[in-house]
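FIELD: query
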Amino acid sequence: MNVQNILFSLPGIIIGLTVHEFCHAMAAYKLGDSTAKSQGRITINPLRHIDPIGFLFIIFAGFGWARPVQFNPYNLRHLRRDKAIIAAAGPLSNFALALIFIGIVRLWLMLAQSPTIAPAALDIVRSGVSLRIIQTFIRAAVINFGLFVFNLFPIPPLDGSHIAFSGLNISMEIQQRIMKIAMPLLFIIIIIQNQTNITILPIRPIVFALLHFFLPQLS
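FIELD: result
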């Protein structure tokens, strides 16, 4: 990834990770646990959520992580349901962010094609700077769709695994055993996908299917 691509990707990565973890923390707090609040995680300050090593991995390796939000399950009113809600809050926030970014792009495209917009305003909308900004929004949408899709795979420690564990009512002991096996396996899968043309987790095709569905102008 070159420097220009990194700069275009930074806003989507920072916003996506920050909002993702904030929503985990807020969901836990709303469901009765104040652990994340006491740790200062109910904030949109990126410094409270981003893990430096995980952040660098995302930029240079295409995958990474933020600081996981901690919560005490014994403070939850409905353990299985609430754990699933907390887990789902993060990926769903990324889906919502992607739609917001796409909405901005659609508005820009509408203005750029409008016959009634003033010439001076039209020049601004079609300027090189404006095009760069829109490319950044498109990239942010792709990144957040990617966070949404990736985190919903039911592989520990991804959010999808916590949703699946809650639905299947798997004991903590079994969850920990699965975690020990699945976490290294997930890293191996990601490395294989990054270094070869083998697709194990179909993240890219699902992401671009979502992008073209909500933004058909790119087709």
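FIELD: remark
The chain has a mean pLDDT of 88.
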